[in-house]
Amino acid sequence: MLMFRPMAALAALAMLGGPTHGAQAQTEAQAEPARPVTIDVDAGTTVGSLPPVWRFFGADEPNYATMKDGRKLLSELGKLKSGQVYFRAHNLLSSGDGTPAFKWGSTNAYTETEDGKPVYDWTIVDGIIDTYLARGVRPYLQIGFTPEAMSSASAGTPYQHLWRPGFDYGLVATGWAYPPRDYEKWGELVYQWTRHNVERYGAEEVATWYFEVWNEANSPYYWKGSPEDFYKLHDHAIAGVRRALPNARVGGADTAGPGGSFMDGFLKHVSSGRNHATGETGTPTDFLSFHAKGRPTFVDGHVRMGLATHLRGTDEGFTKMLSVPSLATKPVVIGESDPEGCAACPGPQNAYRNGTMYSSYTAASFARIWELAAKRKVNLEGVLSWSFEFEDQPWFAGYRQLSTNGVDLPVLNVFRMFAQLGETRLKAASDAQVPLESVMKDGVLGAADIGTIATRTADGKVALLVWHYHDDDVAGPDAAVTIALRGLKAAPATAQLWRVDRDHGNAFAAWQKMGSPQSPDEKQYGQLEAASRMQAEALTVKKAARGAATLEMRLPRQGVALVVLDAK
């Protein structure tokens, strides 16, 4: 296993130096007058649905899932919405002994005898899928990459890359990224794998999975063939899946960004082109997928997030998904949706990941993606966060992840908040929420974005998400939030409040207060686990009139809160 601790330690040190983490900056911000904010919620008026698009996750390194901290984190993800959480991973068909490394993994599913006959071994990949399913997580099954015995890379090209943080990213594209020498063998491999999965897990179970081919084939970092080579790869793989399971859910193309002309060609091919495997017109397509990323920078000694870039890329992707009439109503999955593009890459511009910058960005970005999908009338089914964990790395090493050494980061608590939201959206407005058009154009660089989403849960409760976000990771005043509710049949005396901010649900802040130990003892580990968890608090409800109520709370900058009322 590759472990490059010096770079990771530098990333951790970068995290410690940001202005928002300084005690003096926090004290000064808390001393400033709080910004008054009013949120109006009409609990009697619905304004559409809020699909649980947040329940998708993924990682480059598939083998981490079966390791101690990987298993622990998968269990937490499965609890969010058991049986409806999906995980996407690269390298599920890559050759190797299953030892993970940065941006690498392997299962050795396919080798050949000396005379070229296929040998299939599902042992490692079965272990990965078994680990998912045992924890309430299902596969978003990425079919890739090319096994070594099948790769068309020229002699002398290394198969496994040796990339590590700090190296040139171009070094990742080695023998695994080349097209197969024999597409018939490739299609047969996918057929045999799918048939095996059906035999092992049952057709009913496997029909709930997502199947897509490769990753970012429009990028030279992941594909060393032409677009037409990829269409051929895709057709043979999808034909193999459908031959084994005719009702399998298949799609793609999980491009880097909206995909440009590559995506245009792919959409044309799957809708009206000649299928390379079957000779028929088009390729079965049950869902469409692309990627969208932000672009943080390091400005004047602090991180400035790139939310506008993230949203513009999302909107461009939605526009492409709607461009072919026969595909326009298909479900859409943003197969990677993140603040930036490389989970394993440290650097000052990425020094937002351990603390509440990442968690507040997640709340603000998902809210806008939901809004964009409704505006464009896109059938949005999933928004996949490419963030998991990196096994046996330094504490709070600065990678884009959901936990560190088995202790949850603040961002995971936002997904726990999402899981408590209902799927029926209620009319709600905040007088401090930055309009979507402004965020897409300029980001959040002026006044902070203090916004809200209100929902009705399946059991009749009102669940309200509130975030306090700014692109600049610098200290700022708290928000004094007044929530005015109307349209209630009845209001309880108290509501439940969950928070993730500088003082709540924040293991990183607790670790810093400990002196940032790199080898916490058992007692300290327990304290970090406790600090990572949100605790429900009682929030007093002030009844103003029949069917109406008000609540008041203070929300720090880069904080996120969830308020739940049993107000049926």
UniProtKB/TrEMBL annotation:
Domain Glycosyl hydrolases family 39 N-terminal catalytic: 38-538
Gene3D superfamilies cross-referenced by the UniProt entry: Glycosidases, Glycosyl hydrolase domain, family 39
Residues the record marks as active site: 216
Keywords of this entry: Glycosidase, Hydrolase, Signal
GO terms of biological process kind: carbohydrate metabolic process
PANTHER family named among the record's database cross-references: ALPHA-L-IDURONIDASE
Entry protein name: Beta-xylosidase
The organism of origin for this protein: Sphingomonas sanxanigenens DSM 19645 = NX02
